[in-house]
Amino acid sequence: MAAQPQTTAEEDPETITGHEMTRAEAREFFDGQARAWLGMSGEEFMRAWDAGEFDAPPERTEVTNVALLLPLVR
User: Fold this and answer.
1) Are residues 34 and 66 in contact, defined by beta-carbon separation less than 8 angstroms?
2) The pTM is what?
3) Average pLDDT rounded to a whole number, residues 37-47
4) Closest Cα to residue 68, out of 37, 44, 40, 39?
5) Distance from C-alpha of 53 to C-alpha of 30, rounded to nearest angstrom
């Protein structure tokens, strides 16, 4: 995955530049987050999510953290 620019609180917001992810970078990022939070691939997460296999309460933030990233890959 491409390195993201590091910023600090002291930097002037007007001088901070960003990087728009490519589709491949977004998929790689999503996959990495699904693996880190849930121990499954991004594809596995999407299949389980679409099948309604997550009966997790809203307090289970690891599922929510990955679900919030779905727009990056859809």
Assistant:
1) yes
2) 0.72
3) 96
4) 37
5) 19
